[in-house]
Structures are given as C-alpha cells and as structure tokens.
C-alpha cells in the first residue's frame, strides 16, 4: 500500500515537471503572440528594474535642493540644461531622478497592499464559506458595507485617524481591497464543501478546514493572479491620489502623487512639473493593465477574445 | 415590485449599522478631539470638563449607543469648526457633487455607448483597436492628473474655461470631462465586450434574417440586451464615481461634498467626516437599488420575487 | 422553373489556423413548391450553405466563388439593400434553436409584426391583425395572448411555431429550415414537420430543409443532397436515394438509421469522424472511413458525375464502371 502510494507520488512528480516546462513554453509563446501582453510585460519589467536600481539610474540626488537651478525646463526645450533631462522643480531638484525614485513607493505600496488584501480575503472568504451560518451573514454584510464606501473615502478616514505614513498606507489600501478576494474564495469554498471527499474526510474526523483550504487555493489561484494584477494598477492610482491630496506618502519620501501635487502650484509657468509624473503613472498602470488582460486570457480560456 | 423594494430596503439596515460601527470605531480610536475644539491656551481642567460634558469619558459601548441613538433621530453630531450640526452642512454641499456626478455620467454615456457599440460591430479592425486602446488609456490615467492636464491646456494655455469654482456651464465642463473620462473608459470596454457577445447570439441572426437594417439589428435587438450587464456593473461602480468626484472636486475647487470632506479630514472635524461617509454610503446604496430596478425593467424574464 | 439555383458555391473562413473551406463547390437547385433536403453529419457545411444563401456569412467568412441564382438574379452580385428586401420577404429562414432564436426582451408580437411592417409596408394595427392571424395559422392557441407575451413564457415547440409564423408571414418563395426540429421532442417534431408541409403546400413555397436525420428526409423531401466535408457526394430524388443509394457514405447513413434497416442487429454507425477542415485527407475526403476504399481513392479526388438519369454521385466506384462501359 505504502509502496504503491510512493510510486504514485514519484510518477505524479515527473508528470508535474513535464507539465511545468510545457506550461512555460506555452506561456512564452502566448506572451509573444499577444502584442499588448508583450508591451505590458516589457513596461512592468522596466518599471521594476528602474525601482530596483534607482540609486544607479538616477542622475541626481532626488532630494538635492539647488536654488540656482529652480524651475528649469526639460533639457530638450529652450532654456533647459543638459543635465536635467525632464527639468527641475521649484526647489531645483531633478524631476527625472525624483520620478525614478518615486517608482519605489508606488510599487512597494501597490504590491504589498495587494498581498495584504489577498491574505485578508482568503481568511474571510474561507471562514465565511466554511462555517456559514451567522458568521457568513455578518461577513457578507461587511463586504456589502465596504462596497458602499468608496475606497478613497475609507482610506481618507483611516489615514486621518492613524496619520499618513507608508506602512499605514499599505495597511489601509490592503484593508480597502480585500473584498473581491473574499468573494471568490467564499464561492469556491462553498462549492468544494459539498464534494464527496470533503464529506468523507469529515466523517473520518479529519479537520476539513485544512482539506478545504488545500483545495480552494489551487482553484482560485488564476482568478487571484488576474485580480491582483489589475488591483496593483488601481492601488497605484489610489496611492498617487492620496499622496496628491497630501494624505499619502509624506516628504521627504518621493512619490509620483507628491511630485504632481508640488507641480500643481506652478502650472502656469512650469508645466513639466505636473506633467511627467502623471505620464509615469499612466504608463505604469497601462503596462499592468495590459499584463493583467493577457494573464486573464491565458488563465481563463472562457474570456478569450472578449476584451 | 413594492415587496421587492421593501425587501431591498430592509437589507440596507445591517449595512448601515456596520458602516456606522466601522466609522465610529475609527473615530473612537482617533482619540479625544476636545483639545482641538478648545482654544490653544485652554487649561487641562477646561479640557477635562468638556470631555465629561460631551460624554467622551464614557466606555466605548455607551458612546456608540448614544451615537446610534442620535443617528436614528438624524443627529450626526456637531462640527466643532463650523459650530453647527454636521448633517445640514453635508446636505448643503450634496447638490454640487450630484451635479458633477450627473454631468460626468452624461458625458460618459455619450462617449461610451456609440464608441463601445461601434468598436464591437467592427471587431478587430484598426478602428476597433483605436477605440479599445483609447479606453485603456482613459482607464490608466489618474483622474486628478487628467484634470490638471485639462486645466493646463484649456484654462492656462487656451483660456477657454475657468480654472476653478462653480456657477456657469463653463465651470462644469472640465470637471465633468475629467470625471466622465474614467467612467467612459470602463463603460466602453464593458459595452464592447457585452455587445460582441450579444452580436453572436441566435436572435441577432434571426433579426438579420428578417431583412432588418443593420442599425435596427444593432440598436434594437442587440443593444438593449447588452445593456443588462452594463447597467449592473456600472451601478457597482457608483462608489468609484463618488470617489473620483471627491478628488476631481479638490482639483477644480468644486464646492461639493468632496471639498468639505477633505477640509474636514485636514482639520480632524470628525462629525463632518462621519456624516459624509454616511451620506455617501446611502447614495451608493440607492444607486445600486436604482440599477436593480432598471435591470428588472430591461429584462422581462426577471420576476419580483 | 427553379426558384433557387446554387452553382459551384465556395464559402471559406479565414481563421488563425488557416483557411477553412466549409463549403467547397456545392451545386443544387430547388424548384417551385419542391422540398430539397440537405443531409450530412454535423460539420459537413450544411448551415454554412444555408447562411450563404441568406447572405448572412459574417467575417471572417466569405462566399469566395460560385453563384446563387434566386428567381434568375445572382445573390452574390446584388447590393446590400436589395438583399435586405429579399430577406424575410422572398427568402425566409428558420433556425435550429427555438429557445435562443427569439429575442428575450421583446414580445412575440413585436418580433412578429416587425417583418410584416417592414416588408408589407403596413401600419401597426394591420400588422397586429396579420400577426395574430399568422399565429392562429400555425396552430397557436390563444393567439391574442401569445402576441403580448415574452418568448420565455413559451415552450420550445411553441417558439418554433412562432418562428415558422415569422418566416411565412410575408409569403416567401423559398423557406430555408436549418434543422428545425432537432432541438424538439419527437412528438413535437412530427407536428412541426406536418405544419411546415401543410403551409408550404398551401402557398407552394419551396423548402430547403437542412437535417442530419434521414427519417425527416423520408417524411418531407422530394430531392436530396448528401453533403460530406463541404461537398455534395450524392444528389438525387428521395425514392432513388432510399431504394438505390450509391455513395458508400449514403449507405453508411442509411445503415445507421434504424428505420431504414431491415435487420435490426446489423445496425452500425459509420466508423471514424468527419475530418476537420484543416486536416483533410488526400484524394476522396471519405476514403479513411470508407469500407470500399481503393488505391485511387487515396490519391485523386473523384468528380460529381451523373451515373444515371438525375442521380449524381461523387465516387470512384462508379467512375470506373462508367469508364468500363
Ligand atoms: N464562423 C466560423 N468560423 C470558422 N469556421 C466555421 C465558422 N462557421 C462554420 N465553420 C466551419 O465550417 C464547417 C461547417 O460548419 P456547418 O455548416 O455549421 O456544419 P453543419 O453541417 O453541422 O451545419 C465546420 O467545420 C465549421 O468548423
Ligand atoms: Mg448546422
């Protein structure tokens, strides 16, 4: 019996390996075939590399104030200076360097809060679907409540109470985003709970929370990846909005929303301040959306060609 | 229909209670606001006296009970900054926000319906690519940045529209476009994918086989069907719309709820923050209900049970 | 005179896997008041043929070659507007799926009077009267009430009756029915076929009946076209087809239909499946499944030849005989 089992595991192991390499080539192929997917992948990879190597890539110290170089236009415009490719801000800081460093906060907040949201969503969805009853009712009403408060509003209230900082931002954006995950996990848990093997396990006295979570997660993983990707995009916008309102990332930490907020006061004279950080946000978010759309097509064949 | 409405309205009650609980807990955690209410040179005794007078020294559950009791009577607390009841202040700002939201919705619909239908009927042509590409870019652009760019172009450079404020139609144009673009982008994508699916349905082929003109086939037989998912999903995005309005108002100094709220957040005027959250939540819930009603009108297959 | 004359029709789909020749050189004619049946397994190109006649092939599909003569004018050459005038008026079509072929958001009356208003240029009131009359005519009880109801309140059989009412409302010269009874219960099937037969006779409407069921063919048809992999493999009148089938595929179809096989035990289905358009065998398209396949069958494609009067077959078995004679 045990030998049998073992050989079975070995078999399935090699099986998995073969499947994995096949999947890899299949994915690469499909990525190359999808133009927007390729573009999205390249953009996202580029932004990640920029964030990782910001200190090597940035031509200037993003915080270095230089009163002699205030509000210089981009180097390729009249009056621009060669070393400031995208011009300088009201304190003479290099915009390009600030944008390069700003990518760090955007990605950090975007990705970590989505991970946090995923964890909350799994816990809530599993307990809601598994225990059912009044717990489910209450949790689902909480989900409804979150759906009727705009994310940004919730974040504003939260940040007012706990004060703006990067960790608070991650927590608050995580707490505003978990709803979507909770719903899928709950649905999947409900359907798996009814299956024969889970019932059998229950009658044998096995703790079936373990079983269910082991079966739920593989089934929701693809929806998870797609939602997470697109969620990173909206979170980056949300973070920038909050920073723009002065309630997000606080100086001296550089963020795209923050640069934009500074630039808003100099719109009449120095348009580049407010323009380039916005371009950075838009391009990054666009890349993530493209990547997410492609992932959805690959992971969910039903949606193929829909969008 | 009445029964259905009644049932739906009953469902709101727990949601509103939960919202009140979340908001109240947050404010409770925020700590004693008395120091902010009194002049800076107030003595420690003054602070304590006011704390007791306002009942802020009592345990959480007592305070929450009082708060709920107030809510039921329509008392959302007093704004210490304006020194009046919070609710009238919030309601006073509501029309401006609704005006902006409605105008944006109209713009979004005007852009999204023809564009979505048009690109669905020309699926995979270069024009379709252009339309869907535009929609994705519209979705990727942060609202506030688009607003600033519009100000830069149309107010600062061209001088066509005022930079900020409310009053004339001209004031409304840029904020409405700003807020409308984001919704239009999402809606275009939705309408397109919904239309693409509907256009391949058997009844559309039946309509064509009758010799109807393409226009009728698309707008009579396909479009109404494709609206059903669009209405549902758009309603679910009311909260995004309101969220966008808050930011857009800040960018254009539009004297709506958003502006009041951001001020209140900055001065920690919690009564206004609480009342705003509540009013906005009710607004979102009502929009969802409206969508549910429209949905039922659009689809005769649904029974009011 | 022939109402419809299809000549060497080719309809191709350009897909990402290459060009799919769904209809590949099909010819037949339908005379006034006559019923022509097209039979063949699923995927043989029957629906594409009928949609080509209706002018309803959408991109990526296209009628590449051939002509479709309807009352003498070539439908492949007329403009969009002229085509629309014929559709639903002179040529009408009934589809396979009654459950999904009616728009769920409009009443039966709305959808039925739509084509009457369009083609007969009558006002709303007249269209209504005519529609209700049409509903009665196709045997729908409480026609007034059904006029105002939505499709989801009707059964499949009733909905197919509505479709027939809709198709016949403008007295078409040609009715195309693409598997009109496939989705229905056996008893309802018989009723619907009976109804079609009766109405067609009354108005001497020609019918192009698409089916994969030889029972339906025996019931309804005057002439039969047997299609395989986008081509006509046998074409004759219904008596000849059943008494003297020639193509091995036709024989196979007959053998696999209980009604037409005397010895119950020998009932057998044709081995294998219809080849996919991108994976067509060389030579005769039926050769991998054919019990009589010869060397020549795997190399060259046979032509559709008239082996005897009004009996055409696409098979090397008969070409050789002819050559010998
Ligand atoms: N829109 C389409 N795109 C690509 N191929 C198609 C399309 N419609 C039909 N075909 C192909 O044409 C062939 C014939 O289909 P059809 O006419 O529907 O067969 P049937 O005889 O069952 O009615 C099939 O192989 C099908 O794959
Ligand atoms: Mg078919």
Brief summary:
Chain A has helices at 2-33, 35-52, 54-57, 95-131, 133-147, 151-162, 166-177, 179-193, 196-203, 208-244, 256-264, 271-299. Chain A is mainly α.
How would you describe what is shown here?
The complex is a heterotrimer of chains A (307), B (305) and C (325). Chain A is mainly α and 307 residues long. Helix content of chain A is 74%, strand content 0%. Chain A is elongated and about 80 Å long. Chain A starts with a helix and ends in an 8-residue tail after the last helix. Chain B has helices at 2-30, 34-37, 44-53, 60-72, 86-121, 126-140, 143-157, 169-199, 202-209, 214-236, 238-252, 257-267, 270-298, and strands at residues 78-79, 84-85. The longest helix of chain B has 36 residues, at 86-121. With 325 residues, chain C is of the alpha/beta class. Chain C is built from 12 helices and 12 strands. Chain C has helices at residues 46-54, 80-86, 108-120, 124-137, 143-147, 156-168, 186-203, 214-220, 238-243, 248-255, 295-299, 316-324; strands spanning 2-15, 18-31, 35-39, 61-70, 73-74, 91-94, 174-178, 206-211, 223-228, 231-237, 305-308, 311-313. In chain C, helix 3 (108-120) crosses helix 4, helix 3 packs parallel to helix 6 (156-168) and helix 4 crosses helix 6 (156-168). Classes of the chains: A mainly alpha (307), B mainly alpha (305), C alpha/beta (325). The interface between A and B is large, with 46 and 52 residues. The structure holds adenosine-5'-diphosphate and magnesium ion.
